[in-house]
Amino acid sequence: MPLMLPPGARIVAATHNPGKARELAELLEGRFDIVSAGALGLAEPDETEQTFTGNALLKARTAAEASGLIAIADDSGLSIRALGGSPGIYSARWAGPDKDFAQAIGKVEQRLEEAGGDDSFAWFTCALAVAWPDGPAVVVEGRVDGGLTFPGRGGLGFGYDPIFTPAGHGQTFGEMPPAAKAAISHRTIAFAKLRAALF
After folding, report:
1. Which of 23, 99, 171, 193 has its CA 20 to 30 A from that of 162?
2. Of 33, 74, 75, 161, which residue is the catalytic one?
3. What is the C-alpha separation between 44 and 81, in angstroms, rounded?
4. Residue 175, helix vs strand vs coil
């Protein structure tokens, strides 16, 4: 029998990041009763996998087992060609324990200068995983390409959004209204795949 997400089900968003929890809730379009792992007091697992899909699955399974509820998890990050794909799965860790993304953005700019600073090509990846407490899981991935912009622009969004300009657009993710960002984001692309699999 195919896996399905029953409308109205209570689902744990396996994140302690309020911005990410909000985006996940918006993607789920009010179809479900969403509660964050942070609100439930669930511990954050160590992200020990080497891929976005591996870490998303790890977080979803951990939250599902701890809560007894269906869990959805996102693992996403910024990859930069000139830095060999870094920060990649370490995107959040570059922000340190206080999740200081101004510090992380400064680190990106410094590393790019050290690398020569000519190549600004970058991409955001999002892996979304849904796990059931009894074991089954589905994981999908989305990607959006673009370039880096310094200094960063815009106070919308979160994380690296102020320095990422998606291909074909003049605004950074940090400048785009949420609906405009949502229309093209890596998370939306991944969610379209998830919807096809589970809705």
Report:
1. 193
2. 75
3. 29
4. coil
The phi-psi region of residue 41 (left if phi > 0; otherwise alpha if psi is between -120 and 50; otherwise beta) is left
Number of domains present in the structure of the chain: 1
> Is 143 a member of any domain?
yes
Whole-angstrom Cα distance, residue 198 to residue 82? 37
At residue 99, the 3 state secondary structure works out as coil
**What is the per-residue pLDDT across 141-192, written as a single tens digit (0 to 9) for each?**
999 999 999 999 999 988 999 999 999 999 999 999 988 998 999 988 999 9
Residues of the domain holding 50: 10-198
For 46-63, how does the pLDDT look when each residue is reduced to its tens digit (9 = 90+)?
889 999 999 999 999 999
Q: What pTM did the predictor assign?
A: 0.88
Is 118 a residue of the active site?
A: no
Domain of 98: which CATH number? Answer: 3.90.950.10
Calpha distance 180→173 (Å, rounded)? 9
The single-letter code of the amino acid at 1 is: M
